[in-house]
Amino acid sequence: MKIFLCAICNVSSGNCHEDCQFCAQSIKHNANIKKYSYKMLSQILEEAKLARKRGATGFCLVTSGKSLNDTKLQFICEATHIIRAKIPDFNIIACNGTATFEQLKTLKKAGLTSYNHNLETSKDYFPNICKSHTWQERFDTCEDVNRAGLNLVCGGIFGLGESEKQRVSFIESIKQLNAKTVPLNFFHPNSALPIKKKPIHVEEALKIIKWVKKELPNVKLMVAGGREITFKDRQNEIFKAGANAIVLGDYLTTSGKDIDKDKKMIKSLGLNIAKVYND
Ligand code: SF4
Question: What is the distance in A from the centroid of ligand 1 to the CA of 65?
């Protein structure tokens, strides 16, 4: 089995006016995180080169906020151009919230490979975790990602208080969307957030990975946010459970594991690290 590594570049951070209850970037929660508008393009390129050198096959350009707008679109297109020119074999992903079909087509023309937009949870549980926009808007964007010819990256977050039935419904929706990569996030508590749940128990989290793998055997199944706090010293078990992709380095607002330790762990399990996206 090959393991895919993906690095995240938090292009703009915090100051989001949406009220997602699990997200430290919402202005409503006043969480103690780094906030800034756009990173310099030169810095983004350096981060991309370093990620590739360290073995990442994917590089995700993430912006905070609900949607793409003209300024963001132009910036992400420029960043994509610059990275693509220097690293032709990179899976460049954008994660910029809801987007129109036209905007997604523009990103595709700029050289983008994939677009990440998460459903987060089931349609009926979503109003419990966000009131400022709808689940349907998210679903519609995901459909447009497919129509625009981009690879869809679509997953969500577990441990927000959703029921088993709601987890099943959430995964059924991901199936409908034919996502190529499915990131599984596990809630990482933060005292500033309105959700007061403890991290999911490791056994339950492993069970979730196994179950999703059974439901979606052909996707790249990525364990993303919450990996460290949920699995602690049992991180090696996520691969046995069925995950074949992880986030390398830091997440958006939380620190990740040491990159070399992650790579050492993968090799010690006799697994190979994918060299290119279509490996
Ligand atoms: S998940 Fe996205 S839309 Fe929701 S608060 Fe965070 S940055 Fe804003």
Answer: 6
Six token digits for residue 279: 């490996």
Q: Which CATH superfamily is domain 2-273 in?
A: Aldolase class I (3.20.20.70)
| Distance from Cα 130 to the centre of ligand 1, integer Å | 9
Q: For residue 74, give the H/E element and its range.
A: helix 70-86
Distance 56 CA to ligand 1 centre (A): 25
Cα separation, 194 vs 160, in Å, equals: 11
| pLDDT in 10s for each residue of the chain, 279 residues | 899 999 999 998 888 898 999 998 888 988 888 887 889 999 999 999 999 999 999 999 999 999 999 999 999 999 999 999 999 999 999 999 999 999 999 999 999 999 999 999 999 999 999 999 999 999 999 999 999 999 999 999 999 999 999 999 999 999 999 999 999 999 999 999 999 999 999 999 999 999 999 999 999 999 999 999 999 999 999 999 999 999 987 666 566 667 788 889 999 999 999 998 887
Q: What is the Cα–Cα distance from 271 to 233, expressed in whole angstroms?
A: 18
Residues with CB under 6 A from ligand 1: 16, 18, 20, 23, 25-26, 64-66, 97
